[in-house]
C-alpha cells in the first residue's frame, strides 16, 4: 500500500489544509502561491521554497550523487532501474533536507518538491534541452517517467518521500530562443498520439504530485493559463489531484511575450482562473489587486492554496518527526560508497555501442603498449554531467577512467586535440588546428587511438542557462562542433584502430565516422562515474546493453523545419527516410537469437495480447538483451511500427529463457484527426526482437525481428 491508495489519509490531509487556509487573510493566501512562500508564524507555518531540481540527482545544493543525464538513463530502456534511481535520489534528497532543516536552511533548492522529470518528447534533435528528456518515444517516456516518479515519491502509506513534478505541460520542445513568445501548433491527433501520453501516464499511473506548465503557447493559448490543458484535460479528464506550478517567470510572458493580456493583473488572473496554483516568479503578488478588481474569485485562490498545503501535508512537514520514517534518513547516505557503486552501474548500462568493426572492442590491455587518448571531452568534467546537475565529490573523466584501469601496465598518451567548438586552442595562434601536430605525434606512437568528442551543456542546453556559442542553447546542426571532425580524419590516417566515444546529449550526424572508424560508442553525459563506466565497456569488464532513445539522422538537411510541431516526418514513428542509427538500436559483445515466438492464447486487440518467446545468448560472453515489441497498424497513413513493450533479460553465454510480453488493448489504439482513439480493422503486425523491425536496424544488428500477424 502507498499513500495514493490510502484515501482516508488523503482526505485527512485535504481537510487539514482547508482548515488552515480558512484562517488566512487574502494577502497571506496570495503570498503562499509564490515559490518563495513566507512563514505565517501565528499559524505555525514555516517558510518554504518550492523550487528544487532532481533531473538526474539532487541538483544545485551541494554534494550529491550525479547520475547520468536523463537521456542516458533513457538508453537503459530499464524502467525498474529508473525507479531505483528515483529512490536513490529521493533518499539523498531527504537526507539533505533533514540536515538543512537542522541548520535552519530553507532557501532555494532546499525543499522536497522537485521539478522533475522532464517528460517532453524530444521532437527535434536540435533542441538544446532534449537531453533532459527520456527521448523521442511516448511509450518509452511514459514507462520511464512513471517509474522515476514512483521512485522519487516512494511507497509509504502515509507520506510522500518527495514530490515529483511532470514538466513542461504539454507541447514544448524548442526553439529555446523563442519559447517566451512561441505558439506550438499541434493537431488533436499529434496531441493524443505524441505530446500527451507521458503526462497522462505520470498522472494516472505514477500519481505525480505536481505538473509544470510550459513557457510557450499551445494552439494559441499560454500553457500556464490554458483551460483546456490545466482543467479540461488534466483535472477533469485525467483526475489530477495535485498542484500545478508555472515555469519560472512564464506568467510574465503572457503580456510581455505572447501579448494575450495587457498587464500583470490580467495575466495572473488568467493563470489562476485556469488552474495554475503556484507561481515560479513573483507576479502572483498582483492577485490581491486582481481579486479586488473582480478579475479572479478569491475562492479559486483558496482552492490553489489548499492544493499547495495538501502537498506539504503529504510530505509530513507539519507532523511530528517521529511519525515520518523519512525524517530518520541520515546525512551519511549522501555520496556514500554504495551510491557511487550504483551510479557506476547505471552509467555502464546507459552506454550504447553503435559500431564494432571486426570486434575492435573490447580491448585487451595485455596486447597493448601505448593507448592514445585525444579529444576535447577526454578529460572534461563538464562533459560528464549535462545540466541541472549536483556536485560530486569526485569526477572520473574518460581519460582518468582509462588511466585508472590500465595502471602502469600500459602507457596512456593524451592530447586535448582541439577546442570543443573553436578552430584553435590558443587565441594568439596564427593558424587553426594548433594541436594537430601533437595529435599526429600521439597517433604515431599509439597502438590504438581513443577519440573522445561531442559537446557539453554549454553548447546544448536551456535558453538563459548556458554560456553557449550557439543561439539560445539549441544546436544549429547535427555535426560535431568546431574542428573535431578534422582531428578524427588525422587519427584515421595512421592505420591504427580508431575508437570514437561521443559524449553529448542528442543525436549527432556521424555518417563519415560510421563509414571510416573502427568502433563508435555513444556515452551521453554519463555522470560523475562516467569515466569508470566507459573504461568498463572499453576493456570488457561490462557488456554494452544501451539502446538509442532517439533517432540518429544522416544529415541536418533531412529534418523538417524546427518550428513545425507537426509530427509528419519526425522521429522513427513518422520518418520515411533511412536512419543512420535507428531508435532502439545498440550492439552487444555477444549475440541473441529468438525462437518459438507465438501468441499465448487467442489474440484480441480489445482485451490485450500476450506473446511468449524464447531468447538465447548465442555468443561467448554474458550479456543483457533488451527485448522490444513493436506494433504496426496495417491501415493507410498509420505511423510506422511503434514501441509498445520492453523486457530486459540477463543471459549467460549459451543460456536461454522463455519470456512473455503483455500488450494491453491501448497499445493497439490509433487516434483519428479528432483525437479519438480507435482500432485498425485492417489488422496489425507485431514485431519481437532486439531492435525495430525496419531494414536498417536489421542490417546493423545482423538479424531480423520475429513478426506475428494479427487480423
Task: Provide a compact summary of the structure.
This protein is of the alpha/beta class and 711 residues long. It is built from 21 helices and 23 strands.
Task: Give a description of the structure.
The protein is an alpha/beta fold and 711 residues long. It folds into three domains: 3-320, TIM Barrel (Alpha-Beta Barrel); 337-547, Glycoside hydrolase family 3 C-terminal domain (Rossmann fold, 3-Layer(aba) Sandwich), CATH 3.40.50; 592-710, Sandwich (Immunoglobulin-like), CATH 2.60.40.10. Helices cover 28% and strands 16% of the residues. It is built from 21 helices and 23 strands. The strands form seven sheets. The protein has a six-stranded mixed sheet with strand order 9-14-13-12-10-11, sandwiched between helices. The protein has a four-stranded antiparallel sheet with strand order 18-17-22-23, with no helix packed on it. A hairpin with an 8-residue loop joins β17 and β18 (642-651). α15 (398-406) packs across α19. The two termini are 40 Å apart. The relative contact order is 0.12. The model has no long low-confidence stretch (mean pLDDT 97).
Amino acid at each position: 500500500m502507498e499513500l495514493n491508495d490510502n484515501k482516508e489519509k488523503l482526505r485527512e490531509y485535504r481537510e487539514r489544509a482547508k482548515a488552515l487556509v480558512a484562517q488566512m487573510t487574502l494577502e497571506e493566501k496570495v503570498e503562499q502561491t509564490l515559490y518563495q512562500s513566507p512563514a505565517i508564524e501565528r499559524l505555525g507555518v514555516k517558510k518554504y521554497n518550492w523550487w528544487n531540481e532532481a533531473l538526474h540527482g539532487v541538483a544545485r545544493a551541494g554534494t550529491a550523487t550525479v547520475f547520468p543525464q536523463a537521456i542516458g538513463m533513457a538508453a537503459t530502456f530499464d524502467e525498474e532501474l529508473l525507479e531505483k534511481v528515483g529512490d536513490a535520489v529521493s533518499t539523498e534528497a531527504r537526507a539533505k533536507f533533514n540536515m538543512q532543516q537542522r541548520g535552519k536552511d530553507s532557501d532555494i533548492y532546499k525543499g522536497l518538491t522537485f521539478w522533475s522529470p522532464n517528460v517532453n518528447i524530444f521532437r527535434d534533435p536540435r533542441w538544446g534541452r532534449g537531453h533532459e528528456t527520456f527521448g523521442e518515444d511516448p511509450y518509452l517516456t511514459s514507462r520511464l517517467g512513471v517509474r522515476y516518479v514512483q521512485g522519487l515519491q516512494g511507497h509509504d502509506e502515509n507520506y510522500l518521500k518527495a514530490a515529483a513534478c511532470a514538466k513542461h505541460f504539454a507541447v514544448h520542445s524548442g526553439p529555446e530562443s523563442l519559447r517566451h513568445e512561441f505558439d506550438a501548433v499541434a493537431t488533436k491527433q499529434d496531441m493524443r498520439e505524441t505530446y500527451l501520453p507521458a503526462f497522462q501516464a505520470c498522472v494516472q499511473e505514477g500519481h505525480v504530485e505536481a505538473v509544470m506548465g510550459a513557457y510557450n503557447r499551445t494552439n494559441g493559448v499560454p500553457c500556464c493559463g490554458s483551460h483546456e490543458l490545466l482543467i479540461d484535460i488534466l483535472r477533469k479528464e485525467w483526475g489530477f489531484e495535485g498542484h500545478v506550478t508555472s515555469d519560472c517567470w512564464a506568467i510574465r510572458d503572457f503580456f510581455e511575450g505572447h501579448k494575450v493580456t495587457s498587464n500583470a493583473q490580467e495575466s495572473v488572473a488568467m493563470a489562476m482562473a485556469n488552474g495554475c496554483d503556484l507561481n515560479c516568479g513573483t507576479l502572483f503578488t498582483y492577485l490581491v489587486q486582481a481579486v479586488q478588481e473582480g478579475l479572479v474569485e478569491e475562492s479559486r485562490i483558496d482552492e490553489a492554496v489548499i492544493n499547495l498545503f495538501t502537498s506539504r501535508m503529504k510530505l509530513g512537514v507539519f507532523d511530528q518527526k517521529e511519525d515520518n520514517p523519512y525524517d530518520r534518513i541520515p546525512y551519511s547516505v549522501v555520496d556514500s560508497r554504495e551510491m557511487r557503486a550504483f551510479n557506476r552501474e547505471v552509467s555502464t548500462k546507459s552506454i550504447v555501442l553503435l559500431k564494432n568493426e571486426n570486434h575492435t572492442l573490447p580491448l585487451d590491455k595485455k596486447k597493448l603498449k601505448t593507448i592514445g587518448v585525444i579529444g576535447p571531452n577526454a578529460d572534461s568534467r563538464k562533459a560528464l554531467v549535462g545540466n541541472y546537475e549536483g556536485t560530486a565529490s569526485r569526477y572520473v573523466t574518460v581519460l582518468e577512467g582509462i588511466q585508472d584501469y590500465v595502471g602502469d601496465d600500459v602507457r596512456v598518451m593524451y592530447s586535448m586535440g582541439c577546442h570543443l567548438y573553436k578552430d584553435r586552442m590558443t587565441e594568439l595562434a596564427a593558424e587553426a588546428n594548433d594541436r594537430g601536430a601533437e595529435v599526429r605525434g600521439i597517433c604515431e606512437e599509439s597502438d590504438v587511438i581513443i577519440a573522445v568528442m561531442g559537446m557539453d551543456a554549454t553548447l546544448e542546453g536551456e535558453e538563459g542557462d548556458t554560456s553557449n556559442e550557439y543561439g539560445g542553447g539549441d544546436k544549429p546542426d547535427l555535426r560535431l562542433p568546431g574542428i573535431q571532425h578534422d582531428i578524427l580524419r588525422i587519427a584515421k590516417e595512421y592505420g591504427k584502430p580508431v575508437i570514437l566515444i561521443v559524449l553529448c546529449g542528442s543525436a549527432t550526424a556521424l555518417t563519415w565516422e560510421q563509414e571510416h572508424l573502427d568502433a563508435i560508442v555513444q556515452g551521453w553525459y554519463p555522470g560523475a562515474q562516467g569515466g569508470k563506466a566507459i573504461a568498463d565497456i572499453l576493456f570488457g569488464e561490462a557488456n554494452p546493453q544501451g539502446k538509442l532513445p532517439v533517432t540518429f539522422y544522416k544529415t541536418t538537411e533531412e529534418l523538417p523545419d524546427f518550428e513545425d510541431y507537426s509530427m509528419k516526418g519526425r522521429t522513427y514513428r513518422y520518418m520515411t527516410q533511412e536512419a543512420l542509427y535507428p531508435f532502439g538500436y545498440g550492439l552487444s559483445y555477444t549475440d541473441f537469437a529468438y525462437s518459438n515466438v507465438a501468441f499465448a492464447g487467442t489474440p484480441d486487440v480489445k482485451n490485450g495480447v500476450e506473446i511468449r518467446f524464447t531468447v538465447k545468448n548465442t555468443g561467448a560472453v554474458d550479456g543483457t538483451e533488451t527485448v522490444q515489441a513493436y506494433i504496426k497498424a496495417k491501415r493507410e497513413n498509420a505511423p510506422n511500427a511503434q514501441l509498445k513493450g520492453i523486457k530486459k533479460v540477463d543471459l549467460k553465454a549459451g543460456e536461454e529463457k522463455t519470456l512473455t510480453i503483455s500488450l494491453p488493448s491501448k497499445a493497439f489504439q490509433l487516434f483519428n484527426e479528432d483525437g479519438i482513439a480507435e482500432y485498425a480493422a485492417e489488422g496489425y503486425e507485431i514485431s519481437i526482437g532486439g531492435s525495430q523491425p525496419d531494414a536498417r536496424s536489421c542490417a546493423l544488428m545482423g538479424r531480423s525481428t520475429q513478426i506475428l500477424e494479427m487480423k
